[in-house]
Amino acid sequence: MSISNWNYPTTVWFGEGRVKDLHIACRNLGIKKPLFVTDKDLAKTHLVKKIISDSSLKNFSINIFSNIKGNPVGSNVDEGVKVFKKGNHDGVIAFGGGSGLDVGKAIAFMSCQNRPIWDFEDVGDNWTRANSDKIAPIIAIPTTAGTGSETGRASLITNEETQTKKIIFHPKFMPSIVILDPNLTIDLPSNLTAATGMDALAHNLEAYCASGFHPMADGIALEGMRLIKEWLLTAVNDGTNLKARSAMLVAATMGSTAFQKGLGAIHSLSHPVNSVYNVHHGLSNAIFMPYVITFNKNEIEKKIVKLSEYLELKEKNFNGFLNWILKLRKKLKIPHKLSDVINVKEDDIDKLSAMALEDPSTSGNPKKLTSSDLKLMYQYSLKGKLFHQ
Q1: Beta strands 34-37 and 11-14, pairing class
Q2: From the centroid of its chain, how far is CA 107?
Q3: DSSP states of 284-309 as a string?
Q4: Strand, coil or helix: 372
Q5: 155/94 Cα distance (integer angstroms)
Q6: Is 358 helix (H, G, I), strand (E, B) or coil?
Q7: Non-local CB neighbours of 253 within 8 Å, separated by 6+ positions
Q8: What is the Cα–Cα distance from 322 to 335, expressed in whole angstroms?
Q9: Half-sphere CA count of 42, side-chain side, radius 13 A
Q10: Which of 40, 60, 93, 152 is the most buried (most CB within 10 A)?
């Protein structure tokens, strides 16, 4: 795939080796002292050291912040803001998977706020409380193809006190420049390539099926899913295939662009499991996917038939699509049951269901949800039982 520059939904620089243009991105945004935000593991790699020590960045004063959990928590952001202010930084380079990108964006946002981060949860018009004028500029560089946080207007941060995953939203969470360099995803292990790829699929699928009218999001989601169908297995089986890595990177970005329309129960069920049990978000999305699809069947069947036609599946109907999902998960070695990953007690299901009901993703589900519905989906996923089967 060739080198390209796009201006939707923000400035996107795509192509092999584009990370070498990081100094241009900093210069264009007036950043002289960027805080490089990434996770602990990536911070230790030769890759990060090579990027930061590149001669093109010698005139920039760069510090690294990497004290970030796999499922980021509020204290990670608070500590990052302190480092940002102490170092008199003037911008953020958010680098890595979803955790690095989400925390990086949140640090840039919170660097000029005088309220706690939870006051900006994506509920109603909470975002209007923010001081919008001094939010630090953000450059996002993903190293996984899944979360799509690089083109998202929110960050997922866990409140440690309540053990709930919160969507923190503001339009200016959207990075000013995104660098999509498939070379940076080559070293991603096959299991994480699979999990993050299924995360991208969940974003595109739920955006496509979400309630509401948004034809632009639907169109983006359709093509995002086609790219995933064509290239995910190749990316997992041959991580050095740059064409596959490129396609998956773009598909992930398309997913996060599309889900401005909304998400649904896949994410509602996932978020509590991520925050309470620290399960990888992409993995939990992959596990819940067929249970939610079959639960929503009556509301989404017509759209799924159209989707199966666009994907050119052998069986162009609801069951054909469901079978494709089930076979794909099996090829990717995704567990079929939630109980294969965690041990959930019956008493905990009520707690998880209540948390899922409060999740902002719930409102986008094509079928209106109750706590009982969510509890039933948890129970079915633990047993490995699909609806309407």
Answers
A1: unpaired
A2: 17
A3: HHHHHHHHHHHHTHHHHHHHHHHHHH
A4: helix
A5: 12
A6: helix
A7: 12, 142, 148, 150, 151, 178, 180
A8: 16
A9: 30
A10: 93
Integer Cα distance of 69 and 47 in angstroms: 20
Burial status of residue 306 (CB atoms within 10 A of its CB: 0-12, 13-18, 19 or more): middle
Rounded Cα–Cα distance for residues 71 and 75 (Å) = 12
Find out whether 117 and 160 touch, Cβ atoms under 8 Å.
no
Task: Tally the C-alpha atoms within 13 A of residue 130's C-alpha that lie toward its C-beta.
Answer: 25
What are the extents of the domains in the chain?
4-184, 188-383
For the stretch 96-110, pLDDT in tens is 999 999 999 999 999
**E strand map for the chain:** 4-6, 11-14, 34-37, 63-65, 91-96, 138-142, 154-159, 164-169, 177-180
Give residue 150's identity as a one-letter amino acid code.
Answer: E
Instruction: Tell the CATH superfamily of the 188-383 domain.
Output: Dehydroquinate synthase-like - alpha domain (1.20.1090.10)
- The CATH-assigned architecture of domain 4-184 is 3-Layer(aba) Sandwich (3.40)
Q: What is the pLDDT along the chain (389 residues), one digit of tens a residue?
A: 678 999 999 999 999 999 999 999 999 999 999 999 999 999 999 999 999 999 999 999 999 999 999 889 999 999 999 999 999 999 999 999 999 999 999 999 999 999 999 999 998 999 999 998 889 999 999 999 999 999 999 999 999 998 888 999 999 999 999 999 999 999 999 999 999 999 999 999 999 999 999 999 999 999 999 999 999 999 999 999 999 999 999 999 999 999 999 999 999 999 999 989 999 999 999 999 999 999 999 999 999 999 999 999 999 999 999 999 999 999 999 999 999 999 998 889 999 999 999 999 999 999 999 999 999 999 999 999 999 86
Give me the DSSP letters along 132-174: -TTPPPEEEEESSSS--GGG-SEEEEEETTTTEEEEEE-GGGS
Residue 141's DSSP bridge partners are 95
